[in-house]
Each structure stands twice: as C-alpha cells, then as structure tokens.
Specification:
- The chain has 14 helices and no strands.
- The chain is an all-alpha fold.
- α2 packs parallel to α6.
- The radius of gyration is 25 Å and the shape is extended.
Length: 302
C-alpha cells in the first residue's frame, strides 16, 4: 500500500489526490469533533474495501461488474452507493479501526510527500532520471526511488521548507487545464475515455495535446500583438473589427466552458437533492441505527 501511494504522489507531482468515497462515507457518518481528529485525510485502502464488499455483498458487486462493461459511469455511481451502505452497516469496531488506519496513512503520506519535494528540489537531475524509469522498468524505479527518499530523509533539515510554492503550481496547472478544456474540449473528452482503457496511451496523447496547444497559443498571441500594434499605428477601423472578432471568439469559448461547468454542477445538485429526499423519508430508520451504533461501540469512537 505504502509503495503504491508514493508512486501515485510522484506521478502527480503535487499532493492533489481527491477524497475517496470510503473516506467520505466514514467521515460523513461521524460528528464534527471526530472529523477534526483526522483533518486533512484524503486516502483509503481501496483494495481492502473492495475485498470487504465482495465478501459482504457478492451479488451487488457482480451486478456492478457486469454494469461496468456497458455503462462505466452508472457502475461508478452504484459502487459509491454500495460503499456508503457498507460503511453505514459496518460494525462500530471495524469502523473505528478504519478511521485509525486513515489517520495513520494520512500522517505517513504527508511525511513522504515532504521527502519527495526535498528530493526533487535537492537532486533534480537524479529525480528526473528515476521518474523516467517508472513506465519502462517499474521494479528498478521502486528501488531507486526508495534509495533517493531514504537519502532525503537522512539529509533533510527539520525546519526545511520548499522554495517552490506548490499552491501557485496547482493554480497554474488548473488554469492550463481550463484553457485546454475551453479550446480543445473534444480532444480532452477523447483522452478521458482513452484513460479508462489505455492510461499510457492517454498520457502520451495528453502530452502531445499540451505541446500543440502551447505552440498554437504562442503563435496566436504573437499574431494578436502584431495586429494590435498595427492598429495603434494606422487606426484602421477594419483592424479594430478584427481585434473585436478575436476577443469575441475567445470570450465565447470561456462562456461555453462555464455553461458546461454549471450544467455538471446542476446535475450533481439534482443528485444530492434526490439523496436528501431519500434520507428524509427514512429519517427514523437512520436515527435508530445511529443510536444503536452509539450505545454499542465500546471504544466510543462515534
């Protein structure tokens, strides 16, 4: 589990992994004070959860597996619902152990991330060459990366802080992704679909798209700057109309991107409203189960 987590962090560059459904379910079933004890956790051992689900709900898992062949999106939604159901029905002792494991992993991940950041800053060339091994020779990659992180752990001062502000890096990454989705929405959708069947090919396609987008953006910007300079010199109304047309086109792309984002948000809100209505309809049942958990848990971890 630990080795796999480090590999995910290294591949991402920054710690931006989303909260898993199981972690959400555990936290949503606890009170605010309990959540504070494990603030910042975003990891859960999905392998153990899947194993538990297969043992506890074999028929539901078989149906989800079959559904995934024809409708992956619906299968994902069904799986999330099953995870939430499993956490609700899970014995208090098991839930307490799960939460303790989550907190332990969260602390371990934060420590490892700091060593990764230190190694990348202190030994950039070595770090870069090791990362290249990841796809061609995964076993050698694991060994070399472990050696590098062990060295970083020994050498890193206790008060060390990264020179690079990763919040800015994340912001730049977000803006870049937004630009790609705005201008190359169709290509980005194709890459997302390809990622499900061939992640390596999807990565290569994404790299090629980024390279293409960067070159086109640079050429378009230079062309636009030349156009603006020419207008300032000549005050030609035709050039002004051309400037206006370019600005209108880029603005429309951004607006279309926002429309799509809002549409997706509305879909999520509709789904949450539906879930709220279902919970309201069985409120008494939820309260009854919750009371049983509270009075039966010997560790008082609720």
């Amino acid at each position: 589990m630990k080795t796999r987590t480090v590999m995910m962090l290294i591949a991402a560059g920054v710690l931006s992994t989303a909260m898993t459904t199981a972690a959400q379910a555990v936290k949503s079933d606890d009170n605010a004070n309990d959540v504070k004890k494990c603030k910042g956790d975003r990891k859960h051992d999905r392998g153990k959860m899947r194993k538990y689900l297969k043992e506890k709900y074999p028929e539901e898992m078989k149906k989800i597996k079959e559904l995934h062949k024809t409708d992956p999106k619906a299968a994902k939604a069904k799986f999330k619902e099953l995870v939430k159901k499993a956490v609700r029905e899970m014995p208090p002792e098991m839930k307490a152990k799960m939460k303790a494991d989550m907190c332990k992993r969260s602390k371990w991940v934060r420590e490892k991330m700091k060593y990764i950041m230190y190694a990348r800053e202190k030994y950039p060339e070595e770090f870069k060459s090791i990362r290249k091994m990841r796809e061609d020779n995964p076993e050698a990659f694991k060994v070399k990366m472990k050696e590098l992180l062990d060295k970083a752990k020994k050498e890193m001062p206790k008060d060390w802080k990264p020179k690079k502000d990763f919040r800015k890096t994340f912001k730049h990454h977000h803006n870049g992704m937004k630009m790609l989705q705005t201008k190359y929405g169709k290509e980005m959708d194709e890459i997302r679909k390809l990622r499900k069947t061939d992640p390596k090919a999807a990565r290569e396609k994404f790299k090629a798209l980024k390279k293409k987008a960067k070159a086109e953006f640079k050429a378009e910007r230079e062309k636009f700057i030349t156009l603006v300079k020419k207008y300032r010199e000549t005050k030609d109304p035709k050039l002004l109309e051309q400037i206006k047309a370019d600005v209108t086109q880029s603005t429309e792309r951004r607006l279309e991107f926002k429309r799509k984002m809002i549409a997706k948000m509305q879909e999520r809100i509709a789904a949450e409203n539906k879930k709220l209505q279902e919970d309201e309809a069985k409120k008494d049942e939820i309260v009854k189960k919750r009371v049983q958990q509270i009075v039966q848990d010997p560790n008082l971890t609720w």
